[in-house]
Write a structure and sequence with these properties.
By secondary structure, the protein is α+β, with helices and mostly antiparallel strands. The chain has two helices and two strands, in the order ααββ. The chain has one domain: High potential iron-sulphur protein (High-Potential Iron-Sulfur Protein, Chain A, Irregular). The chain has a two-stranded antiparallel ribbon with strand order 1-2. The two termini are 26 Å apart.
Length: 107
């Protein structure tokens, strides 16, 4: 197994575990949720930043011209909102202009 595949497996496993802990049928509004802090241990593990422009494109596992939370497949909520819920950080919201290492293109 390559390092990239192993890393992706671990990241997706964290997402799946977090999803199992969520209670179905209960949806919080984005404005009611706390914002992900860059100093949070989970955020640091996922290399989360509130400003994607601070991340060098060459350092990303999945290079793309423009990667932000707003165009990630894992972000939820209304398009155009500055802060939106994300499957990676249950119960918290991420900056639409942010980025993390689990970024995946929308289908």
């Amino acid at each position: 197994m390559s390092k990239i595949a192993r890393r992706q497996f671990i990241q997706l496993s964290a997402v799946a575990a977090a999803g199992c802990m969520m209670r179905p049928g209960q949806e919080a509004q984005a404005q009611d949720m706390p914002k992900v802090e860059e100093s949070d241990s989970m955020a640091q593990a996922m290399k989360y930043t509130n400003d994607a422009s601070t991340v060098a494109p060459a350092s990303r596992a999945n290079p793309a011209p423009e990667q932000t939370c707003a165009n990630c497949a894992l972000v939820q909520g209304e398009d155009g909102a500055d802060w939106r819920p994300c499957q990676i950080f249950p119960g918290k919201v991420v900056a639409a202009k942010g980025w993390c290492s689990v970024w995946a293109p929308k289908a």
